[in-house]
Specification:
The chain is of the alpha/beta class. It has 2 domains: 261 residues, Catalase HpII,  Chain A, domain 1 (Beta Barrel); 215 residues, no CATH class. Helices cover 33% and strands 19% of the residues. It has 15 helices and 26 strands. The strands form 5 sheets. Strands 1, 2, 3, 4, 5, 6, 7, 8, 9, 10 and 11 form an 11-stranded antiparallel beta sheet that branches. Strands 13-15-20-23-26 form a 5-stranded parallel beta sheet, covered by helices on one side. A hairpin with a 5-residue loop joins β18 and β19. α2 runs parallel beside α9. It is elongated, with a radius of gyration of 34 Å.
């Protein structure tokens, strides 16, 4: 099925299986409801942010040649630190986060985000897949404790993420989830990211918390230690002071790489974010230095929207089709992030995401949101005067029947008179003359059809919009009736021949002569001047190529060109909508559909 790029859909959702959609939809709806109630982020609500630069080291031993992470390159960056669940007190025990946005410096007036990395304390996450995360999110404490008895590495991942922090800048942050790196030589590798303090004396164990019970309690509910008199937001204050100091805030960006495994089982194990990679086998490489020298205001920090799905061809997100795949953790969370950020920012929610939420088991009340108005479809009233109605019910149908046959009669009159002349005067038998009369009158009718097209309709241009009750549309319906009659008389029989191509050409179609374009469908003559068939292009039997569409948008008919590029094929009974194109050598399969503005590759 060919999809319309202008229609509201999300390819991340489209490629999920039904169970994946159900699980992720329910998770997204739960977090969306919480976002609406809190009018804030569910996770990582408070923190501090700044901006600065990332400078890649001139020499990195063991790093293949890469477009983004290449020696000597410099980028602008934005860095945000936060607590995971604690929303009112930095002194609570909590996993700490670091979100790093790398911004391209390509000389454009408006630099664009290149890559968003979300990292946290602890070298592992407590859920392998989005399915496990959703289950963990809704189950109770007793069920979680029972689960970690059989999976102690999950308990260790949760414990290792907790940090008793004195400063955001003295902790190590891990991506846990890996990305696919594509190097300039075509090689691909799995890569994880890490930010470590510039000061090597600050070890990975800094701020680590001793085990508390089978599982630590919900971190947002862990109180600060008795006697701790520090301000509630002391971590944010400390970050601002360090950024403003002469030494600034400095980190080292590290990469941990491994080859993409050949077999599925090993790939799943490599993508499992609950188990860190062995650093003796896959060591962290220092690739660059991050310097933060400017503090963002609280409002600027709150306005930040880090998107885990922001990527580039050289650093790609690994896709998943099932909620049980390890890759679903990164793939699925990007959808949830995007939905919650739109709700928090009061942005219009795309139709695909509204449908996604509405299909879940958890119902989200969007009635109080500004974006609810975006889903209201305006009623269209095609009001017309009484005389228009009278005309449409009486004169127009009469003309659509009478005029085509009148034209056909005029066309056939001269050839018919001629064969009568040959039969009566020359004595030629009528049985020999009738086939010639049929072909002669049919070709003449085709030429008259082309002339009447230019007289009645003229040339419809791509992008033109006409009211459905306009005079132009009325004249078009008259010509369509003439074309239908003449097509049934002879021209449809000539489809696939050079005669048919000449007929279309006479009516304005752009058909390549030298490359042998083949057209075997009257459906190409709906709006002939909006058809372009390039060299070796093929239009199969009974295929429909619409150059116009009525969308119900205030009663307007819109026009768009349909293009079959060099060597392209539109299969039998396929449908191509206005603005669609079949690429060079591409195929729109039989009985399939290319939506408006769609490019088929």
């Amino acid at each position: 099925m060919v999809k319309n790029t202008l229609h509201a859909f999300d390819d991340r959702i489209e490629e999920m299986d039904m169970k994946y959609k159900k699980v992720l939809g329910s998770l997204a709806a739960n977090l969306a409801s919480s976002t609406l109630k809190l009018n804030s982020r569910y996770f990582h609500r408070i923190g501090a942010a700044g901006k600065g630069s990332l400078r890649m080291y001139d020499h990195v031993l063991g790093l293949p040649d890469h477009e983004i992470f290449s020696p000597g390159k410099e980028y602008c960056v934005v860095l945000g630190h936060s607590n995971c669940l604690s929303s009112d007190d930095d002194a609570r025990l909590d996993p700490r986060g670091a979100a790093l946005r790398i911004i391209s410096n390509n000389g454009d007036a408006e630099p664009s985000p290149l890559l968003d990395l979300t990292l946290k304390t602890g070298n592992a996450f407590h859920a392998r897949s989005i399915g496990e995360f959703a289950t963990w999110f809704v189950c109770g404490a007793a069920a979680k404790e029972e689960y970690v008895k059989h999976s102690p590495h999950i308990r260790d991942a949760m414990r290792d993420s907790l940090r008793r922090a004195d400063s955001y800048t003295e902790l190590h942050y891990y991506s846990n989830i890996c990305r696919l790196f594509r190097f300039r030589d075509g090689k691909e590798m799995y890569v994880k990211f890490k930010l470590r303090p510039y000061d090597r004396a600050i070890g990975v164990e800094n701020g680590k918390v001793e085990p508390i019970g089978v599982l630590p309690p919900e971190t947002g509910a862990i109180p600060r230690d008795e006697g701790d008199k520090r301000p509630r937001l002391f971590l944010a204050d400390d970050f601002q002071q360090r950024v403003s100091s002469p030494d600034k805030v400095r980190y080292v960006l590290q990469l941990q790489m491994r080859p993409v495994p050949d077999d599925e089982t090993t790939r799943e194990a490599a993508l499992d974010c609950t188990k860190p990679w062995d650093e003796t086998v896959f060591p962290h490489l220092d690739v660059g230095e991050v310097t933060i020298d400017q503090v963002l205001t609280k409002q600027e920090s709150d306005d930040l929207e880090f998107n885990p799905f922001l990527k580039c061809p050289e650093v790609d997100v690994i896709r998943a089709t099932s909620c049980n795949e390890s890759a679903s953790m990164d793939h699925g969370r990007s959808v949830v992030y995007a939905i919650c950020q739109h709700l928090r920012k009061k942005k219009p929610l795309p139709e695909a995401w509204r449908d996604f939420l509405n299909q879940s088991d958890v119902k989200v009340d969007l009635s109080g949101c500004p974006m609810a108005a975006a889903s209201v479809v305006k009623g269209v009233t095609l009001v017309r005067p009484w005389y228009f109605t009278f005309w449409l019910m009486s004169a127009q149908p009469f003309l659509q029947v009478f005029l085509p046959y009148f034209v056909m009669g005029l066309v056939a009159f001269a050839p018919l008179n001629f064969i009568f002349y040959l039969n009566k005067i020359k004595g030629v038998e009528m049985v020999y003359l009738l086939p010639f009369f049929w072909i002669w009158s049919g070709i003449l009718a085709g030429l008259v059809c082309g002339v009447s097209k230019w007289i009645l309709v003229g040339k419809k241009k791509q992008g033109k919009i006409e009211p459905i009750w306009s005079f132009g549309i009325f004249m078009d319906t008259i010509w369509q009736a003439i074309k239908t009659l003449i097509g049934e008389y002879l021209m449809e029989m000539t489809s696939g021949s050079v005669i048919f191509n000449v007929w279309l050409k006479a009516m304005g179609s752009d058909i390549a002569w030298g490359g042998g374009a083949y057209i075997d469908s009257m459906g190409a003559a709906l709006n002939p001047e909006l058809m372009e068939i390039q060299e070796n292009g093929v239009v199969g039997r009974e295929a429909l190529m619409f150059g116009h569409i009525y969308e119900g948008d205030e009663g307007k008919v819109k026009y768009g060109k349909v293009v079959v590029r060099r060597g392209g094929l539109i299969g039998s009974r396929a449908v191509a909508m206005p603005g669609s194109s079949v690429g060079s050598g591409a195929t729109l399969a039989p009985l399939s559909l290319a939506m408006k503005e769609e490019f088929v590759t």
